[in-house]
Amino acid sequence: MPTNGTDDHIAAVRTFNRFYTRKLGVLDQHLGKSPFSLSEARVLYELAHRDDLAAKEIGNELGLDPGYLSRIVQGFDEKGLITRKPLPADRRQYQLSLTAKGRQAFAKLNLGSQNEVAAMLAPLSAGDAARLTQAMATIEDVLEPRRSQPAAFMLRSHRVGDMGWVISRQAAAYAADYNWDISYEALVAKICAQFIENYDPAREHCWIAEANGEPIGSIFLVKATDEIAKLRLLQVEKKARGLGVGRALVEQCIQGARERGYSRMTLWTQSILVAARGIYQSAGFRLVATEPHHSFGQDLVGETWERDL
């Protein structure tokens, strides 16, 4: 037996496992009010978060019996939730993708799960909620180290005080890096105020990147139309650049738009923001329009980028 596997350690892990299983059962009770079993919900989650997955990949990652997975996939197909196309390398295997109906079904299921977690966290203070999520991150890092990630950071939803941080850091960063004047701070303040005043969690969201309890980046998903989502105010602190924070925020924003039922995503940026443009391009956005303008005390070239979801 490993030296760390003492009786006290084993008992502590088993006690926590029983506690967590009870909590997990409470959080999954909403599945009883939906047409999906827990396994079906897990498959929906994988399909909603990754493009063109092979059925075999899902089975391997979720540990599902091939026959059972086949029945789930067949049921999804009959309900019009997925599309299937043979893999070019092995036509016996299929790539699976959610249809618009499938994404709507997942969005409803996901919103129920979010509400359950929100209800569990509601009695906690901001400090206790931060301690809880940091403890969860520690458990993940210890039991399954992420070798591909050079530094640990997490993405969380906005809370009281974050809008002030976003306004301050956006204004200071662009003034320091690009000599933009205070009119940019006014624009960011207006965007943040409108976001809070009109916030609809079913259609919009803000994510804050955080490391060691300190904000290091942010991004906003807002409604442009019923079908089109807008990505706004991507920003990463200089000390956190190169860690993959910007890419993680953009990917989360894209996924958030999918989960909320949008079919397209758009954003407006400037040609001089080379790092951000690179992230957008690698995330599947394409440049569709440019327009010279004078804003924030500078001559700039505005760019509109779009991608389908």
Layout of helices and strands:
Elements: H1 7-27, H2 38-49, E1 53-54, H3 55-62, H4 66-78, E2 82-86, E3 94-98, H5 100-121, H6 126-143, E4 154-157, H7 162-178, H8 182-197, E5 205-211, E6 214-223, E7 228-236, H9 245-259, E8 264-270, H10 274-282, E9 286-295, E10 298-308
Parallel strand pairs: 7-8
Antiparallel strand pairs: 1-3, 2-3, 4-5, 5-6, 6-7, 8-10, 9-10
Helix pairs in contact: 2-5, 7-8
Domain HTH marR-type: 6-141
Protein name: MarR family transcriptional regulator
Keywords: Transferase
- Treating each run of at least 4 consecutive H or I residues as one helix, how many helices? 10
Strand content: 15-25%
> CATH-wise, what's the superfamily of the largest domain?
Gcn5-related N-acetyltransferase (GNAT)
- The CATH topology of the largest domain comes to Aminopeptidase
From the spread of the alpha carbons, the general shape counts as globular
Tell me the domain tally: 2
N/C terminus separation? 50 Å
- The total beta strand count reads 10
> Per CATH, which architecture of the largest domain?
3-Layer(aba) Sandwich
Low-confidence stretches: none
Largest sheet: 7 strands, mixed
